[in-house]
Amino acid sequence: MEKVCIELMNIELSYLDQMILDIPRLAVHQFDRIGIVGKNGAGKSTLLKLMAGQIQPEKGQVHRQADFASFEQMAVPAEMEADDEMLSKLSVPPTDVEQLSGGEQTRLKLAGLLSSYHEGLLIDEPTTHLDEAGTRFFIEEMKYYYGALLLVSHDRFVLDALVTKIWEIEDGHITEYTGNYSDYVSQKELQREQQLEQHEKYMKEKNRLTKAADEKMKKAEKIAQANGQMSKREAKAKANKMFMTKSKDTSQKAVQRAAKSIEKRAGQLETVEAPAQEQSLHFHQPPSLQLHNKYPIMADRLTLMAGDKILFRDVSFQLPLGSTNAITGSNGSGKTTLLRHILQQGEGITLSPKALIGSYEQMGYQFDKDESVLAYMKERSDYDESKIRSVLHAMGFTGNDLRKNIRHVSGGEAIRLVLCRLFLGRYNVLVLDEPTNFLDVFCIEALERFLKGYEGTVILVSHDRVFIERVADHVYSIENQQLRLIK
Questions:
Q1: Are 342 and 458 in contact (CB under 8 A)?
Q2: pLDDT at residue 473, rounded to an integer
Q3: DSSP string covering 116-166
Q4: pTM (2 decimals)?
Q5: Please, are residues 169 and 44 in contact by the beta-carbon 8 Å criterion?
Q6: Are strands 173-178 and 474-479 parallel, antiparallel or unpaired?
Q7: Cα–Cα–Cα angle for 44, 47, 49, nearest 5°?
Q8: Which residues are bridge partners to 318 per DSSP?
Q9: Sign of torsion over alpha carbons 106, 340, 292, 423
Q10: Residue 460 confidence (pLDDT)
């Protein structure tokens, strides 16, 4: 029997009167490989910090019986012991932490984590900022790791490769699913189909009983009307006859009682709600935004440098109208530099004269005007309010979120709001630099629906291979100072 490494008992943890975690019992065993999923703010990182002992629950106990190390997504790498071999394998340059890029800082933290053995690892979004080679290295290291692994990740490819259980956090509760992320998705879809089937059965039986009750009430009304039209002698004779034959079914009160009995049965049916439906989204562009150039973004013999380093040499490309174009490449190959050069319409770049570009960059977004989320979107979009609400809902803005002051939104909410603005805004070209970073899996899937329903031209950079496979019409790879079309 496998050793229990961490056990959580009767845990309650809340924030601002909202229950974040409510866990009767949860255990991590010696060789568990667990992927933790949930919407932004659901409590994924909080759960890891609770297990690591970095925070304490309001109620309950956390029993740790093994040595666990932690990898925190947002933490700046401190001076840590990392062996030279691991630093070399992860291509971490020998320079001060402040001089490292986001991807290099992630590599440095991973080098420190993997330089010594621990019985368990608590890892929060390890592949954010990592290129394909870095992600592949992480997967290989974890495949042969001998211990308990708990992994928070929005990267579905990584979850499929590494985990054998999924913990889903929703409304403070944790539900366990067996298998990797794809297995979890299949099980959720099966649950949705079963719920839909039960809902249809419930509605069919409720409608049958309601119809039967209505028919009984109509029958009672006809009896009342018939009695009202009889003479007193006829009514008395009929009453005597009914009494003699004990034919209660034809009496008004008996029929009314039967109708009420049926209504009561309908009211006692166990309610089965219909499963939430994913709305198909389409962003129709008005004639004023439509482009007619066959290739709205072009480069002709583009040479681009970063300091003394040549990133691109004599590169030419044409991005087709209405297409989604993904650019891949290793960290430092020039992906972000190329996007910025396009935005600046630098030398060698030709844009359609009618191009209206909306851009998303890897940066912190702050808002300086007091207005609600809904008002912010309505002012910057020509779509009607119902469409705006449906797009915001897909990105996790529901209920009171729409009235929230944009100056008080979290970093993750700001990112989601900016992405909603771009798709609903007055643009016909979108330039997106790593748009899936810091989004949960559910918002990434919403973003995929946005892109599939978008009529404009898109150029994006991403290391998320599943995301690229689902949205990109064309995929380019930066190799040896060239931009090579690989799809």
A1: no
A2: 95
A3: S--SEEEEE-TTTT--HHHHHHHHHHHHT--SEEEEE-S-HHHHHHH-SEE
A4: 0.77
A5: yes
A6: unpaired
A7: 110
A8: 298
A9: positive
A10: 95
